[in-house]
Amino acid sequence: MLAPGEGHDGFVAAFRAALAGGALPDGVTAVGEAEQRFAVYRNNVAHSLTEALARRFPVVARLVGEEFFRAMARVFLAQHPPASPVLLDWGAAFPGFLEGFPPVAGLPYLPDVAQIERARGLAYHAVDALPVRPAAVAGARSPEVLRLVLHPSVSLIAAAWPVVSIWAANQPGADLGSMRAQGPEVALILRDRALEVPVRALPPGDAALVAALLEGQTLGLAAARAQVAEPGHDPAAVLGYLMGAGAIIGVEEAA
Asked: Which member of 21, 25, 126, 245 lies 3.0 to 4.6 Å from 153 by CB, making a disulfide possible if both were Cys?
């Protein structure tokens, strides 16, 4: 119950602070010892949120180990408590948190792996949009004025590490010892027609082309940028993949 004269917003702020480990907020009463009962509630909330974070970032959890992840999640929860009842919104700060968390400094690729897992969650819950028919692209005018609109689930993550290979090697049933990739990788993430969210490593030309399309550039300009990144680049493969996945949802002509 609220203490006399206490505002709702102030009580909510105090309650949230108490959940993060602060003092019991004024106005909270219980049969028996209030502090002990609230501590049980606090632990239950922390456990539930830790489980939710582990489900959102399973590869990060596997890379650091279950015990370490749970301890790390408690630190993250104390610094970044949920600001919304929608758990999908919580965890956006986790990749940035990992960048500044000294105990994982020896795993410099971990924030980018977390970015992939965050992007996959957003892609899965992205708004629906119908893909265009192949004939709409084939019958369009010159690539110089053609603009392809990509599905809201499409995103790119560029990393200085082989993060796609690391992510793939840590999937259920994968052989961790089979990973041989080195160097930077760019991840393409989207939700396909089967409502799956694959993660695909793109070569430089494909990555440059998709990045340009995401920026709203025409296909001609996107292809030119791909040629700079990878001379001799052929856009057919990546465009075919996007079309097959249902990731092209519009065809426009630039002014």
From this structure: 126
